[in-house]
Amino acid sequence: MPNSMRWRYGETNPIMLPVLAGYVIEIGDLLYLDGGNVKPASTQTDLGTLAANQETFHDNFIGVAMQCTTGASAETIRVATSGVFEFPCLPATFEVGDLIGSTEEGTGVQLESQVVIGVTAENLALGRCVKQAASTTDTVHFDIVRTVVRGGSQAAA
């Protein structure tokens, strides 16, 4: 998917992280940390089921790309580790507080780097919806919660 500034509001708490040569990252990609380097969601190894892929991505989720790379050489990019972002999603309705997670592309063998869906469990989530959509919509505003640094989306006490 082309570069798309998905950040809408809130503190982004950016950090600078390395990207290995050979990995193309677009602005707006959901990123995970792998061996100290960030990679787009679409490069995560397929674990056979959507839930397994979502949970693994949740466990390694670091944030959203605020800069892009060409893949020609190793680079360091700015990654937003918090904030409210607007992402395309599978058509659905959303309530404030609904859990939002990653989804797979059509063939089910890799995660989408810039598309999300509603999920039902914290261990699959990347954040929570912050803007109600009472009618079916194909975008969702959600507050990301990075897992690697903050522990991910948590259940209400």
Account of the protein in words:
This protein has a single domain, classed as Virus Head Decoration Protein, Chain: A (Beta Barrel). With 157 residues, it is mainly beta. The N and C termini lie far apart (37 Å). The model has no long low-confidence stretch (mean pLDDT 91). The chain is built from 2 helices and 11 strands; from the N terminus they run ββββαβββββββα.
Number of helices: 2
Strand content: over 45%
Output the structural class.
mainly beta
Question: Unreliable stretches, pLDDT < 50, 5 or more residues?
Answer: none
Q: In one word, what is the shape?
A: globular
CATH architecture designation? Beta Barrel
Number of domains: 1
Give the C-alpha Rg: 14 Å
| Helix share bin | under 10%
Tell me the major beta sheet: 6 strands, antiparallel
> How would you state the average pLDDT, rounded?
91
| CATH class wording | Mainly Beta
The CA-CA distance between the termini, in Å, is 37 Å
Strand order, biggest sheet?
1-7-11-10-8-9
Question: What oligomerization state is this entry in?
Answer: single chain
The CATH topology turns out to be Virus Head Decoration Protein, Chain: A
Order of helices and strands: EEEEHEEEEEEEH
User: Would you count the extended β strands for me?
Assistant: 11
